[in-house]
Amino acid sequence: QVQLVESGGGLVQPGGSLRLSCAASGSIFSIYVMGWYRQVPGKQRELVATILGGGGTDYGDSVKGRFTISRDNARNTVNLQMNSLKPEDTAVYYCKQRIHNGLGVGDYWGQGTQVTVSS
Q1: Is-contact 72 94, C-beta < 8 A?
Q2: pLDDT tens-digit series, residues 79-118
Q3: Please, what's the largest Cα pairwise distance for the chain?
Q4: Per-residue model confidence (pLDDT) at position 47
Q5: pLDDT tens for residues 18-28?
Q6: Is the dihedral of CA 62, 65, 67, 73 positive or negative?
Q7: Is the Cβ–Cβ distance between 80 and 49 less than 8 Å?
């Protein structure tokens, strides 16, 4: 069984920074793409950023130049450094990892962490 645990959310003022982390544990043979998504009530979950096993990255248009995704393969962890935060970044942030658990490949999601940007 695979579990993803997120940390690092909270309340921050506009212009501030936060760092999110998501660690996978359990039966892990290999991890492919890792990513972060966010969702606000009444809207669809949207892509924030993804990172491939080789390090290639992709970002949603609204966060380009402000957010940076990284991964630590030794710790099965994906991080999201969020700078210059805006009120419209307020959302529940979810990590997703595509993992081979020894039997097959599946997408696993974290429980979500709230990020609130407000003065």
Answers
A1: no
A2: 999 999 999 999 999 999 999 999 999 999 999 999 999 9
A3: 48
A4: 98
A5: 999 999 999 99
A6: positive
A7: yes
For 109, half-sphere exposure in the C-beta direction (CA atoms, 13 angstrom radius) is 9
**Strand ranges for the chain from DSSP E:** 2-7, 10-12, 18-26, 30-39, 46-51, 57-59, 67-72, 77-82, 91-100, 105-109, 113-117
DSSP code, position 42? T
CA dihedral 113, 47, 83, 94 (to 10 degrees): 10
Tracing tokens 């393969």 back to the chain, one arrives at 73
Encoding tokens for residue 90? Answer: 């307020």
d(CA 8, CA 10): 7
Cα distance between residue 46 and residue 28, in whole Å: 26
Q: Phi, psi (5° rounding) for residue 65? A: 85, -10
Report pLDDT digits (tens) over 67-88: 999 999 999 999 999 999 999 9
